[in-house]
Amino acid sequence: MNTPSQRRIVLITGANKGIGHATAAQLAKAGMKVLVGARDRARGLAAVEKLRAADADTDVHFLELDVTDDGSVARAAKHIEVEHGGLDVLVNNAGIATGSTAPSQEEVTTMRAIYATNVFGLVAVTRAMLPLLRRAKTARIVNVSSSLASLGLAPRRSAAMPHQNRVFAYSSSKSAVNHFTVRLAIELRDAGILVNSACPGYVATDLNRFSGPRTVEQGAKIIVHLATLPAGGPTGECFDDEGVVEW
């Protein structure tokens, strides 16, 4: 176990519940200093207390962060720099999914709201944290995505899982996330920063009204794996528990 001064620092957005909270617990157990990003202060503090109650040795801290608010993102980056001195790992987990309709019936207002969090918020947080990540010896960026983002899998799955065609806004937002992952990985390759997308699978969360068959702990495992990749690990890919997910 690393001493407090040696612990790598990870920021997880949307970490007050669900997969983000489970990821925080697993990375804290692995010896990292975990910054629990949440836009709601009360819920974020409650999540931190829950993590500490489960394991007194965890090094977890609340960080107020609304990924859709540029001012909040800037303040969060400044806080990390002043209070923690840097950042080793960024897990872009915050995401929303609203509505369930066919692509031809999708409301533009719904898409804008989803993209504001899932895409624009993710990009804004990454840009704000990059100066801190560049200081780290082994920086990692993990963008939480979904196999629903895959253009190759969609036609083959349509017969068996027709409901997947009714989540166009969410699915396409994750396709944009994957494209950002690829382009950012190329840009940061020479800096030694590994950037990958993680597909947790169909996990039971409030995002899907807890209909998924997988637990949040199971879903968090691939995120933790990518957040702790050794030097020379893969970059610019999307992974689930079974390996590479096709684009």
* CATH T-level topology: Rossmann fold
Mean pLDDT metric:
93
Overall shape? globular
Number of domains: 1
Distance between the termini: 37 Å
Helix content: 40-55%
By secondary-structure content and strand pairing, the structural class works out as alpha/beta
Strand order of the largest sheet: 3-2-1-4-5-6-7-8
How many β strands by DSSP?
8
The total count of helices amounts to 7
Q: What is the CATH architecture assignment?
A: 3-Layer(aba) Sandwich
Strand content: 5-15%
H-E string? EHEHEHEHEHHEHEE
- Using the CA coordinates, give the radius of gyration: 17 Å
Q: What top-tier CATH class fits best?
A: Alpha Beta
Quaternary state of the chains: single chain
Main sheet, how many strands, which sense, barrel?
8 strands, mixed
**pLDDT < 50 stretches:** none
Write a compact overview of the structure shown.
With 247 residues, this protein is α/β, with parallel strands linked by helices.
